[in-house]
Amino acid sequence: MNLVEKEFLNFMKKFDANPFQIIMNGETHLIGEGNPTFKVIFHKIPNVSEMLTSTSIALGEAYMHGDIEIEGDLYDALYHFMGQMGKFSTDKKVLKKLIFSSNSKKNQKKEVSSHYDIGNDFYKLWLDETMSYSCGYFKSENDSLYEAQCNKVHRILDKLCLQEGMTVCDIGCGWGFLLIEAAKKYKVHGVGITLSSEQKKKFEERIKEEHLEAYLQVELLDYRDLSTLNMKFDRVVSVGMIEHVGRENYERFMSCVKEVLKPGGVFVLHYISALLEYPGDAWVKKYIFPGGVIPSLREIINIAGDLRFYTIDVESLRRHYNKTLLCWNKNFQEHRREVAEMFDEEFVRMWELYLCACAATFMNGIIDLHQIVFTNDVNNDLPMTRWY
Questions:
Q1: pLDDT per residue over 161-170, tens digit each?
Q2: What predicted TM-score, i.e. pTM, was given to this entire model?
Q3: Is 161 a catalytic residue?
Q4: Which of 161, 169, 327, 358 is labelled catalytic?
Q5: Residue 100: which region, alpha, beta or left (left: phi > 0; alpha: psi -120 to 50)?
């Protein structure tokens, strides 16, 4: 074993909570004690200095480049390994621009576009028919991904306590399924906002297909410009969007919601959350969600109280997101060849790593998913029980 291999092996020895094998140059090395839970074959050894700068980026890029192979199931290996992310090294000084990127409107539009404007044809391959790119809700073990996404949307609509003729704003509306269902079921008037041109284009097509032009509109708009709509809404909903605004903008985001929500109005916030306030994973920020930061539950609740948002209900859907991601990965693997033809093998490996790693971190409790129901100041007209 040469010096590079020795240094690398010594670095990896701290990840010993679940035993696994490292194979280098045909030699097998056991990390931890007991029967190995998975095997990792290294065709090229990551530089230890790069591992110290960012363990996440070094290992993530090694997988993307094919320098690492997992023997067996990728998700299973990541589930056993990523519970130890607290032992990862991250040099925040070296990675300052990556971890703490600008929250200017121009940069945030660029960051959002870099993910969501990859192309509707790409997302169609592995999302369900609703084109929902957020956590589903599995009422039963046998629910399909499509059924879970429909369940999720209608659960949110129930939480909004909608009535015919109400006005609804969806901040980060995606491809529009939630507002379309709201308009069809409740005859509400909805406005969706997004920073993704691809999503806006698809949503507008769906509005025409469903003949909902009299009920729905979609705007390419930053949440900070909500007031330019010159509208007050009975209800506001935001699904998987606050993760993109940056920690220093959480209060601003909530203030913008309050500004356009009528007194007593209901606001449902659905977002990936965390127990503590972390700056975010360096590999995810570099390759998947530039600028993405996950709020803790407590900081959102604290901000809400300061703004006189009353917290009516909080629900965790953590394991539902684990199952959603595994469904996405199954679909993704079924269309692996088509994705490779659209992009390349490195892109495929990047996305399968992202999907499986996220599924693993939800199952490990590293991240969570919360739906919170707020009212803008006191509302004594809503049912006293969990009406949904």
A1: 999 999 999 9
A2: 0.94
A3: no
A4: 358
A5: beta
